[in-house]
Amino acid sequence: MCELLAMSANVPTDIVFSFTGLAQRGGVTGPHVDGWGITFYEGKGSRTFKDACPSSESQIAKLIQSYPIKSEVVVSHIRQANRGCVSLENTHPFTRELWGRYWTYAHNGQLSDYQDKFIVSRYQPVGDTDSELAFCWILEKVVDRFGDNEPDDITPVYHYIAELANEIRALGVFNMILSDGDHLMSYCSNNLCYITRKAPFGKARLIDSDVVIDFDKETTPDDIVTVIATRPLTNNEHWHILSAGEWKLFCKGQLIKDR
């Protein structure tokens, strides 16, 4: 299986601390050695870094850990391949345009007997993973339901995506992170958790690396930052564990919808 990491914040924030812990799971403290990727949003634009080698060995991953790119929304993934070969085109996150926005998606899990279900035409996968094909199918279904123009209220779109995710979960394990650049959705099949950090801030200690940070010295009293991960990244904080079929929608670091 793979591991997911994402962040939603109300101010541009770097994810160096959390990514440092995740990167160690790509070959040191975990078996996820088949590539990694991360997407940072800046307004309506985004920048993505990917590598098909383990995150613990990648020079690009070391750049991310040393260069604090600030963003309000981040989506990241480390891969343990089960569908599709180890290659750059099969490395998450995947991005597509919808309604004049870049939508970014990452999946942890494995699906079976999905080829006949995921019939797509407008959105085509580039690689050969079940994950990317599922993403293309989700976007096709969203366009079929809501049309070619973004609705004034985006929340019904995410409710519908949650319904689609329930259908996909019937085919196997489907933990998902999805973002339109403003909102960040997490959907749990079996392993997903989150933490929201806000004042009063304290110290946090990584599980996978000997790193401690005092967020009180790195933030302002108005900052709100939510981090989503497959498994907790710190051992001295309280992480909320999601249950099967549960989903959350965040914006500017705050929970706005859930089930």
3D structure, described in words:
This protein is an alpha+beta fold and 259 residues long. Helix content is 19%, strand content 33%. It is built from four helices and 15 strands. It has helices at residues 16-24, 59-66, 130-146, 155-169, and strands spanning 3-13, 36-42, 45-51, 71-78, 94-98, 101-108, 175-179, 183-187, 193-198, 203-205, 212-214, 224-229, 240-241, 247-251, 254-258. It has a seven-stranded antiparallel sheet with strand order 3-2-4-1-12-9-13, covered by helices on one side. It has a six-stranded antiparallel sheet with strand order 5-6-7-8-14-15, with helices on one face. Strand 7 and strand 8 (183-187) form a beta hairpin. Helix 1 (16-24) packs antiparallel against helix 2. The chain is globular, with a radius of gyration of 17 Å.
The total beta strand count reads 15
Classify the secondary structure makeup into a structural class. Answer: alpha+beta
Mean pLDDT: 94
Summarize the main sheet: 7 strands, antiparallel
Strand order of the largest sheet: 3-2-4-1-12-9-13
Helix content: 10-25%
Uncertain residue ranges: none
Gap from first CA to last CA: 24 Å
3D shape:
globular
Strand content: 25-35%
